[in-house]
Each structure stands twice: as C-alpha cells, then as structure tokens.
Amino acid sequence: MPNPPQDGAAARDLAVRIGARLGRCPGVGAVTLGGSWASGTADHRSDIDLGLYLDRQGGLDVARLQHLASGLDDRGPAAVVGRPGEWGPWVNGGAWLKIEGRRVDWIYRDLDLVTRTVEDLCAGHPATHFQVGHPAGFSTEIYAAEIHLSEVLFDADGVIAKLKSRLVPYPPRLRRALFAGLWEARFLVEAAARAAQRGDTHFVAGSAFRSVVCMVQALFALNERYWLHEKGSIASIDELDTKPEHFGDRVRTVLGGLGNEPSELTASLHRTAEILAEVEVLCGVR
C-alpha cells in the first residue's frame, strides 16, 4: 500500500523535528533521515530511521539523549537508549522508539569510522564484517549507501555534505573491486557441488545465498548504484537498467526451491551458476 502524501509529509515533519533536537545533544555531529523515507520507497508500515553520527572527540552525552528519548517516546521512561558500541563495531548502538504512534529508530554511526570507510571504498577496498542482523555480513558499502541516499537533518560542520560529494560520481575503483568480488560467488557455487552430492541442504543454501549477494553487489556497481541492505535486494535489481533477463524471478525460484535430494541440490546449483555466468559477462569478468 503506497504511503498517502499527507502521511509522508507528517512522517518527514516528525523526522525534522526530532533531528533538530538530536542535533543539540553533545556528541552528535550530524543527524540524517535514512531508510525508505529517504529513498522514496516508504509505505504506512515503514520505520523512520535516523542516523546519529557521533563525534568521538566530544563524547556522546547518553544521559541527555536518554532524557530526550523518554520525553519523546509514547512509553515515557520505558524508552531505552543504548551506549555507543553496545550493538557491535559497525552498527554501534541506538534506540527503538515509538513517537506519536510511529516507530522511530535511532542508529549510531561512528563519524570517524564512516569517514575512513568512505575513503577506503573510494580507493577500491570494500570489506565485509560480522554483524548481528546482517545474514550476508556487514558490507562497508552500506556506509556509503547510507550517506549517499540520506537526507541531512543536522550537519553542523558539513561533514556529511563532504562525504556525499566524495561519492558522486560512483568511484570507479569500487566498481572494479565489486566486479572482482564475483570470484567468491564462483568459488562458492563450485565448492558446494560436493555438499550437494551428500544432500547437505544447509551448506548449499548458505553458499547459494552468499553467491547471490555477491552478484547483487556487482550488479549494483555495474549500474553505479550503492547497495544498502540484504532486505529487498532482489526486488531492487529488477528496477536496474542492466541485469540478466528475469534475474529476480530466477533467483527467487532457486532460493525458494533448493530441494533436499542430491539431484535437486545439484540442479539448483547449476541454475545458480547459469545466472552467475550472465552476471560475469555483463561485468566483463568472463
């Protein structure tokens, strides 16, 4: 169900009001509106995602942020604000709130780490790290996508604006690196063949999933788009200009019906390899 214009305006107004108050909290260097509200794909179910870019030098005033959350959240003092680093090194912490009847997520980002990561990406050095909640791992490209897609609500020193400028045009070295990353997809598909012969559905499923993630990242790079998240990735590919024919339908068919018998698993890997070969041709690595 598409979001009614008036509902979208109300959500954006709420984000702007919260962003202004967050910007007055010591240690918050910038605030952005991200997720589906920034990308224009929100509907009535969508959370309002606010990125809080933290300045290490100042140190975040967690007590003040907790006080702000308690005053804004519909549950009052029951709202809980995390400390930086509690959720891990890449998704640093935050809060899950309900404000004026809407789900509002505050997500911490280490501003220094984001800045270094963007420079690494522009130099052609993407990386993937373990992070709870990211079944494909946390790709550092996510930081670039968040910066590129976000709407700035507060940016006292213009740091987010500078990072945005670094990401346009799409960095050619990052593009080449993500194309080169297709070797992992090829390795996974070929290495899973023996597991398929043993009827090891779990191993084949993980290999097929991860190989598709590599393909998705390469196709985003091919179209000079930043990849944000595993969620909705296949549907997003369908909207790109350059991609294998019927990519989304074919991937959904494979992942949704891998099978249990060796013959079924082997056939699923074969179909995955066929899709991969087409992606490799488009990206010029085959």
Specify the helix fraction band: 40-55%
Alpha-beta content class = alpha+beta
Mean pLDDT: 95
The name of the CATH architecture of the largest domain is 2-Layer Sandwich
Shape: elongated
Strand arrangement within the widest β-sheet reads 3-4-2-1-7
CATH class of the largest domain: Alpha Beta
Q: Ends: how far apart? A: 41 Å
CATH homologous superfamily of the largest domain?
Beta Polymerase, domain 2
Number of strands: 7
* Tally of discrete structural domains: 2
Strand fraction equals 5-15%
Poorly predicted regions are 1-5
The main β sheet shows up as:
5 strands, mixed
The CATH topology annotation of the largest domain reads as Beta Polymerase, domain 2
Describe, in plain words, how this protein is organized in 3D.
The protein has 286 residues and is an alpha+beta fold. The chain folds into two domains: 5-166, Beta Polymerase, domain 2, CATH 3.30.460; 172-282, Four Helix Bundle (Hemerythrin (Met), subunit A) (Up-down Bundle), CATH 1.20.120. The protein contains twelve helices and seven strands. It has helices at residues 5-22, 35-39, 62-72, 111-122, 141-149, 159-166, 172-180, 182-197, 201-222, 233-238, 247-256, 262-282; strands at 28-34, 48-54, 94-99, 102-110, 128-129, 138-139, 151-155. Helix 7 packs antiparallel against helix 9 (201-222), helix 8 (182-197) runs antiparallel to helix 12 and helix 11 packs antiparallel against helix 12 (262-282). The longest helix has 22 residues, at 201-222. The protein is elongated and about 60 Å long.
